[in-house]
Target: Threonylcarbamoyl-AMP synthase
Amino acid sequence: MDTLIGQNLTQASILLTQGKLVAIPTETVYGLAANAFDKKAVTRIFEAKNRPTFDPLIVHTHSIEQVQQFTKNIPEKAKKLAKQFWPGSLTILLEKNDLIPDLVTAGLSTVAVRIPNHPLTLELLKQLDFPLAAPSANPFGYISPTTAGHVEAQLKNKVSYIIDGGPCQVGIESTIVEVKNNQTTIYRLGGISVENIEAATGKVEEVRHSSSNPKASGMLKSHYAPQKKMIIGDIAALLPQYPCDKVGILSFRKTYEQVPKNQQVVLSAEGELAKAAQGLFAGMRYLDNQPVEIILAELMPEKGLGRAINDRIRRAATES
Ligand code: TXA
Ligand code: MG
Model:
């Protein structure tokens, strides 16, 4: 299959209407999209990603009206979150109706929904008369893509069209929440911080990862992982244990003189967490492709987006 890359939304919508796969830019990461109402089309997503079918997908829409078409009983607090954070990096679990095939939700009665904040994808969604099911556009378990080039590098022949929307502005996946009995639960840390959600809904509960039967695959202990071994710690203290020419560095602010420049990724010299999130996955991919044997990484401050970034770094560093 020849993959085309560009910004032709008409072509993308024709392909999607035919049941084909199209990679879409969002503000978090690129998604691998298909018609969420078409079971056969959704099957192709699982095949292309090599994703187990017990792992449910996020459904992307452009309006709350469209959300109401395929869900029921939206709790008041969920409506409030939607109003405040959509379009944006928040995914809300809602009771689904029969328009959503069971394959999309892995048999669960809830469907994960969000309105992404990217002008091209919002425009595309408005042109379609169905929502788009889309997981991150990476092979299952590998680092999520934040550019069209990342998608091309790994799924080139498995997708009919890649919409190039430039580098993702947020850079890490959406935060996943559920509202039940007026209580908000967070299942995956992500682009909207816990602090911001609590400011809107009051105290939230957090469900931490489990290695078996996870509610979100982002909860699997090893996920978002590079192929190279990654070690977390105090980089300055770890460095003397390794030959400098074989080491890659993923640091928040500092550079290290002993290590060649092209083997180092500094996420934000100014110490800005939003900037660190933006460059995180591209940085991990870059280091994974350098001739290094090991990647030394450090954690961010445990607040705001720093918590979501640390979550991704910890899972990337866990050896599978
Ligand atoms: O930012 C994002 O969320 C990106 C972009 C493309 O929107 N998408 C993304 O999708 O990260 P994915 O498939 O890589 O992660 C979706 C997560 C999975 O871990 C899945 O288990 C969880 O959402 N999920 C989906 N439906 C669910 C449900 N009904 N209950 C619990 N978890 C669900
Ligand atoms: Mg993913």
